[in-house]
Design goal:
By secondary structure, the chain is mostly beta strands. The chain has a domain of 217 residues. It contains no helices and 28 strands. The strands form two sheets. A 15-stranded mixed beta sheet has the order 2-4-6-8-10-12-14-16-18-20-22-24-28-27-26, with no helix packed on it. A 13-stranded parallel beta sheet has the order 1-3-5-7-9-11-13-15-17-19-21-23-25, with no helix packed on it. A hairpin with a 2-residue loop joins strand 26 and strand 27. It starts with a strand and ends in a 13-residue tail after the last strand. The relative contact order is 0.07. This is Calcium-binding protein. InterPro entries: Hemolysn_Ca-bd (IPR001343), Serralysin-like_metalloprot_C (IPR011049). GO terms for molecular function: calcium ion binding.
């Protein structure tokens, strides 16, 4: 009969695939082995993978499956190589999943790729994924999170260090079912292409997407429920409230916003840029001006209303004509 608490440690620097299975108890599985799969199976398990230092070369793989129970799962990669792949699945229970991947490559002829795939499964999960790329040649970051069922908290970061030539730093999250809170951030500079793509799914979700440096875009959709959507930074963003009474915050770039059905609120602050609201409904939707923002003028053209603000920003209300600015505020 298995003990109720088992500890196993596997430390080597080989590239042969290894599979380590827990028991029906509360297991602690630690590995420093490349190409290792840790399976917690049943119980409240702790799974840890660490691939650190110059000794890890070639392609790196880390896979963890929590199984049934409230599991704590973590992967830490910090290596001088060109490829790292992680895959974590929490399974059933309130799980904590964490991945921190950093790759450094000094070969001018090599392209670097970080791929992280995390699935929360069933339960109120906490999911954190952080990817950092430092390469003299170029590369890509791909973070994907599927939160699953439950009230989940997701934090995603794709970070490109200064001077790195990156084609794409990408965050994707699907909140699934439940009241989720999702933060997605992409950092870069120069010509780095930064994208956040987040869907809240079913439930009352909070989604904040941020890009800083480089060429940033965020695409966020609330799904059904009363959602709060916010973009920070970015040259171009799209926000879709969809079902429910939603609250949308535009950023400083070009924001395309759609509240969807029911009564939605659109917050406009200073330096909002040039925004478009595609489905403003007089009598149910409202503009909310913040940070001292004020309206300078209204103009009607081609069946739409163009609102200019005192700081030079604007919002185009497509397909609706409004001559009285009081109607903008409900």
């Amino acid at each position: 009969m298995a003990s109720m608490f088992d500890t196993a440690a596997f430390i080597q620097a080989e590239n042969e695939p290894v599979v380590v299975n827990g028991t029906t108890g509360d297991d602690t599985l630690n590995t420093g082995t490349n190409r290792t799969t840790l399976n917690g199976l049943v119980g409240n398990d702790t799974l840890t993978t660490g691939l650190l230092g110059r000794g890890y070369t070639g392609e790196l793989y880390a896979i963890q499956n929590g199984g049934t129970g409230n599991d704590t799962m973590s992967v830490l990669i910090n290596a001088f190589t060109n490829y790292a792949y992680t895959q974590l699945d929490g399974g059933t229970g309130a799980d904590r999943l964490s991945v921190n991947s950093t790759l450094t490559n000094e070969d001018a002829d090599a392209t670097v790729l970080i791929e992280n795939y995390l699935t929360g499964g069933t339960g109120d999960d906490v999911i954190d994924v952080d990817a950092t790329l430092s390469s003299v040649s170029g590369g890509n970051i791909n973070n994907e999170v599927y939160a699953g069922t439950g009230n989940d908290t997701v934090t995603m970061t794709a970070r490109v260090l200064e001077g790195t030539d990156v084609e794409l730093a990408y965050n994707y999250a699907d909140g699934g079912t439940g009241d989720d809170t999702i933060f997605a951030t992409a950092f870069g500079d120069g010509d780095d292409y930064l994208i956040n793509e987040v869907s809240g799914g079913i439930g009352n979700d909070i989604i904040i997407a941020r890009t800083e440096g480089g060429y940033g875009e965020s695409y966020i959709a609330g799904g059904s429920g009363a959602d709060v959507l916010q973009v920070i930074g970015g040259f171009y963003n799209e926000l879709y409230g969809q079902g429910g009474n939603d609250t949308l915050f535009g950023g400083t770039g070009i924001d395309i916003m759609s509240g969807g059905t029911e009564a939605d609120r659109f917050f406009i602050g200073l330096n909002n840029g040039a925004d478009v609201i595609t489905d403003f409904q007089v009598g149910s939707d409202t503009l909310v001006l913040t940070d001292g923002q004020t309206i300078d003028s209204l103009a009607i053209s081609n069946g739409s209303t163009f609102v200019t603000f005192a700081d030079g920003g604007s919002v185009l209300l497509q397909g609706v004509t409004i001559a009285d600015e009081a109607l903008l505020f409900g």
